[in-house]
Amino acid sequence: MKARLSDDSCARALGSAQIAAELIARNIEVELVGSLGMHWAEPLLQLEEDDSVFSFGNVTASAVGRLVESVEPNDDPSSSPHFLQPIETQPFLAGQQRLVFDNAGVQHPLTLPVPTQLERILESDPTEIIDAIQTSGLRGRGGAGFPAHIKWRTVAETESDQKYIVCNADEGDSGTFSDRMIMEADPFKLIEGMVAAGYATEATSGIIYLRSEYPVALEYLNKAIELAYENNILGKNLLNSNFSFDLEVFVGAGAYICGEETSLLESLEGKRGQIRFKPPLPAIEGLFGKPTLVHNVITLASVPGIFDIGPAEYGSLGVGASTGTMPFQISGNVKQGGLIEIPFGATVRSLIEDYGQGTFSGRPFRTVQIGGPLGAYLSERELDTPLTYEAMAEIGAGIGHGGLVVFDDTVDLREQAEYAFLFCEIESCGKCTPCRIGSVRGKETMRRFVDGPDIRAVQLVEDLCDVMEQASLCQMGGMTPIPVRSAMQRFPEDFSRIRR
Amino acid sequence: MRLRETDYGTPFVNADESSSAVKVSIDGHQVSVNPGTSIMRAATMAGVPIPKLCATDSIEAFGSCRICLVEVEGRNGLVASCTEPVQEGMEVSTQTPQLEKIRRGVMELYISDHPLDCLTCSANGDCELQDMAGAVGLREVRYAEGDNHLQMPVDSSNPYFAFDPSKCIVCSRCVRACDEVQGTFALTIDGRGFESKVATSTDNFMDSECVSCGACVQACPTATLMEKNVIEHGVPDRTVLTTCAYCGVGCSFKAELKGDQVVRMVPYKDGMANHGASCVKGRFAWGYAKHPDRITEPMIRDSIHDPWQVVDWDTAIQTAADRFKAIQKKYGRLAIGGITSSRTTIEDVYAVQKMVRTAFRNNNVDTCARVCHSPTGYGLKKTFGTSAGTQNFDSVEHADVIVVVGANPTEGHPVFASRLKQRVRQGAKLIVLDPRQIDLVRSPHVEAAFHLPLLPGTNVPVMNALAHVVASEGLVDEDFVRSRCDTDAYQEWFDFIKQEENSPEHVAEIAGVSADDIRGAARLYAKARNSAIYYGLGVTEHSQGSTMVMAMANLAMATGNIGRPGVGLSPLRGQNNVQGAVDAGSFPHELPGYRQITDSETRSLFESAWNIDIDPEPGLRIPNMFDEACAGNFKGMFIQGEDFMQSDPNTKHVEEAFSSMECVVIQDLFLTETAKMAHVFLPGTSFLEKDGTFVNAERRINRVRPVAKAATGLQEWEAVQRLANAMGYPMDFKSSSDIMDELARLTPLFAGVSFEHLDNVNSVQWPCNDDAPLGTPVMHMETFAHGKGMFVTTEYEPTKERTNRRFPLLLTTGRRLAQYNVGTQTRRTENNIWLTEDELEIHPADAEVRGIRDGDWLSIASRMGEITLHAKVTERVSPGVVYTTFHHPTTGTNIITTDLSDWATNCPEYKVTAVEVRPANHRSKWSEQFAERESRQQDLLPTGG
User: Fold this and answer.
1) What gap in Å lies between CA B294 and CA A493, rounded to an integer?
2) A433/B83 touch (CB, cutoff 8 Å), yes or no
């Protein structure tokens, strides 16, 4: 008998180590894999006996004995409360189109990639690579959705003795975990993407800026980098080409603001994590003043998939200018939380209802916040909006990093609006005034609605939101008004209710 | 002079030669600026100032306050005008209903966390936050009282300024000024978001790395960092532009006044030497001018054991004249002499040397440059043809390699040090030759590529070794040498320098420096595009001081590092007007403008102007005067502002000399150590009362303008003129500008200089004449002053002062930041709290074998004498080397220095004294004698004086 067990942070937090111990104690060979993204079913265990594979979800260590017995010939595994539909036919996965997460959960995270694709890339002309990225229509997956090829070309065309590829792995938005998952499940995907970007832009040094809260990712990344060096995927003249590329991981110190690219660069330089004004753009003067391509993990990890299926094919996925696939992450008050990689264009509703299967509490749905703590709260009647950059912008929302947090009808949007300011207060770097003081004043003013309607406070918040949106130095302060305004506009009753 | 200068918000951007000016429209006003200029600066130039708080033109844009937003045609969203560079054809609107609303909203946030005590605030009327609140039209703060910083306590630890964080708007201007202007990195923002606050690494400013340069106070837009003087007296209402009277950097300051009272000294942004920077001395340590110790009335006495008698000016002058005349009658024309000061103005100095040459009828005039940079004068004249540094301070901005030799700029010349460090932070490489690990060797964001910690007394072999590498490794700039230098002299030098005895490997042992480091440093210097040498008294104050100056000149010529910005040989001169004092003819062998007294043509020029025959024989140098005094041949001395008893080597000998004189006339502010040996005291004026000019280390002639009336009623030159008249030579200057006019008339280097010209053009560097009406920033551009550059062979001759078993350590001396020279001024300010006494720096290894712990009383004995000091055990000094300062008279540092001196100029060898150091349990004998004399002489002063 062989076992395959999730080894990502989520499974580990739910006791996968004890489960593995139980399996090993029974002399069962255990293969650790990343998560398939079915977080609702973690820890997820697959047992293989006589060419049949059985899947079990929400496994506990104490259940292992019984599950092992159940897959033996004369038992019936489907009678177990942990029994899941086979992975091949699992509805949660069936509709997905995985280009980034194709290997996640199906192989050991440190399985070396087939070198042919990277070799092909290294044989092409760097400008062809950039052209391919342009054809694919790839946009930054970190939140801004900026066309990737423009950054690539700018870095490529800026003359310098040194250029950098910096991967932003400071995934800090609440309800997002795709960066962590790919680094824990298939770190080579990211490494390949960074090597390709380095080759295309003539950057020879890569740095992954990893948030300190991701120890499992750090473990896998470091091992993967070591393996990559051993196998000439990194280092001098990699894969026998003329191109050399070095890669290292830098662990952040726990500040949300360092997920903003200029703060991240400051932090990498050993300075206080504080926003730099632009211009100059990092692509021209970035890390240590050198041209730097800064991308989020998923953006870079999307690159191998583009070359896998071909840039034109990739560009044909999705809708309009929102091309390719996006790993959405759904969490909060939802029955089936997890990662769903699909082309752009599915509706919000399909994610919540088809994949998420509605609220976890079973109570009526009230709102979903899309795109992290600085994203908009949507009302029920907006759920049929397709998840594309353009459609979301039309309703004053954004996709951000692809996180959806679901709430049932017990949510108080006044509290959520206050929380938006509080989040800004806690995470503000403190450089610019609108964010530094505005967040505190916003939080305080929000408390004025606890006792019921306050017309003057409404005007004050409105004016404050204008100031923060238009005058903040970066998107931290600039986007804080989004959750606040969306809450006040779509759920005005929560701001006029008398609570005491 | 305007109290508040125009603040363009962001720094001036140099024009790139390849690109042309950018034209933009600001609210319809067309303006043309250098590419890279911010919208904010362009708008200010167009006469459309944009509201701002975190921007000021002494530091780079930061973009934090968000008050300066503007709209740009064709651009979405608002643009911060401080951080956004202009682009051709940009159309900017600085005032729209939307901008008005946003700015007011930002200001409302600021004021929601700011005390509303404007009327009682020390910055009332001088507060940018107040101004901007008015400018954006804030009428109401609608936020309810919430979280704030209003209860944060004031830090009053610094003697000169207070830090009140309750008024802080966290614009980071102080932090950035400390980083960018001063380069000390003492401040930071601590905490994040709303908790962000300005902080030092310690609990308060006083205990931190802060050097009290005042840059943060200057940069603060509110009352958060404020001069205690302003807190006490209020905001000044007028300003007078003048020049600092401390070191040779010569910073321009605005003396800001209320009535006749100086409230603060603020560095002048357009000061050509300092560009708005300052140090703790110039910025804050000027209170001595009103110190109760200051003497403002003339005094006389028959012997130094008699009480002083206050008299009127006429009596004092007549007494001095009568006694001098009597001496000359009895002992001969050459029995008296005069000393000019490097602390007074050119005009004061000129009057003294003229008095000596006319009324005294000899050339017995000398100046304290004798004991500091006389080897510079000699060495640079021999090699380049001019007795002065080759560059302006701005030149350092073009240097790729900077060599600092025997100078400690961060303490001795702090404002220049800050600019040097700026350049190093931009990427220039630094080489330090110094026995000690001075700050420049390693301090925040500055690290020397090479530190050669050579033993005191081994400058010449090390410099020769550097040149040896250049010569033997083919690093000579042949084109430069061939076209600019005398080839015979070069060849002779080349043959000499290539000898094995000059090789790094040979010198390494003598100097205690690694041969590899010497080679590395030489290659770095020789291969860079622009290499510049800056040096101090660690070069000159040696028995081979002049040789060392020429050795450096050789190296600079051999590598072609002369005659353009970014290169050269620059002495960092110690005193505000030491250059000017020498320019104006203070040396016994030279008339003004470095012309030989023995040259009959020059002499006749002055003779006809002065209407008197001039003695063709050079007069006595200072040490000769003392020797002659001890021999009974030199009996009278006029001394303008110099304290030989503390500053000159071998104090016992100096004291004996003064004791043998019959009339010592001193012109000074205080009863200095030398004044205690005097018979006539003529009270001097402080720099705040002077009217004249100072010449700084870069040959820059700066105006010194009277801020207050002379407390004594007379300028120094007026007293000198009266004395000359009383002695029988009619001197008739109507004003100090009259004196400058005469100097200019008779001296080609100064031909184009007048007070009027200086008032018009700010300042000039000599030579200033018809060919160069705006002066000469960099010398020897096309040819050397005397045609071809002259190489001189510089053979090493070790000093006679050697260590042995009795005196195994080498003592070297220098300056500390807070104190200045003999401390006459700084000891009478709050600066004293930083260095209340001189201390002896000793390496832990040397301390341990002697059983010395930090803070112990030590006896320091040399062949000349013994003093006592407290121990400072530190690795700043190398093993075998000890170091002290001479700021406090009770120390008597010069009791133990020797009477050895530079072979060419007699500049004393202060920097090398063999000593032994032992733990002590009592003060030295000298110290006790000093204390006794001090109390006796104080008793002789008139009561209340």
Assistant:
1) 78
2) no
